[in-house]
Structure prediction request, 389 residues.
Amino acid sequence: MTDPKPDPDQWSFETKQIHAGQQPDPASHARALPIYQTTSYTFDSTEHAAALFGLAEPGNIYTRIMNPTTDVVEQRIAALEGGVAALFLASGQAAETFAILNIAEAGDHIVSSPRLYGGTYNLFHYTLPKLGVQTTFVEDPDDLDSWRAAVRPNTKAFYGETISNPKIDLLDTPGVSQVAHDHGVPLIVDNTIATPFLIQPITQGADIVVHSATKYLGGHGTAIAGVIVDSGTFDWTASGKFPGFTEPDPSYHGVVFAELGPPAYALKARVQLLRDLGSAAAPFNAFLVAQGLETLSLRMERHVQNAQTVAEFLAAHPDVTAVNYAGLPSSPWYERAQRLAPRGVGAVLAFELAGGVDAGKAFVNALQLHSHVANIGDVRSLVIHPAST
Prediction:
């Protein structure tokens, strides 16, 4: 009699963050995740190579496209987000770029919330138009009619951040996803600030999830990385808007990606975009992010506790004129946060001082314990002065 194999779908979040995607190494029996520091992999035969390149069977070809260390991290993050597959990339910026270019090309259009990380806004506003992809930023992302009004015949996706940086408002993911689906397009969300421990946007209707894994997933300020998670639930054949999924790809042996099943989006991003654009993450960076994932729930619990305490202190301080943190009852998004993120709204907050810009500069310069850096999601307390950067 053999013991039944474990069913990862039945595991708790805390178990998945440690075990999902990995068994002890079969060759060495190593318990920790090995770092496969290699560029390439041997093929058993020419037939084996052909099967791998033709996607007839899974396996490793070249580390720019896949790597065993990276594969574990992809499976683990997909499990935590409730997706069917993930693609680990060299940065969060690469992840959101791939997320759009996987479905939009010259002549296409996306609709986005304007409440975005600055790097994302620049990508959408300045760089994507050079590639022929236009973006409409809805005036009020809390108004579903604003999203509806922005749709065009060539719209290919909606985009937003589950918790925005730095305004710390929450996207109405269920509502926005419904509008997107009514128009035959997917909702792509950036879940960096929330992490899947606080919000699992796929359960709220999102189709594609991106992260800067540099931030809370890695959690220690040691690795630049990004990830795309495919929910596997969007029907790429229904609307006729996505010929890249429904027509043969001449660059990849005539494969029709929609015929590959639920992980079609992630597979297409891997074997087209990653193959050609090359934004591959180093195996060592994947290993560092894997180490961060093992303590994600513990860190996020304490991050939220600390941020809530700081937000309440600032809100009561006479020199503070405004605090942006959806964990405060004074926030316009407090009720939405209680519904969509009952475990908390993360550890990023923004506030304004009575003295304006000069007071903000003096405050940052006077801090002794905080690190003044262009980053979030570290185990250390960080600060930045947006008006100066």
Residues 296-315 form the longest helix (20 residues). The CA atoms of residues 70 and 286 lie 5 Å apart. The radius of gyration is 21 Å.
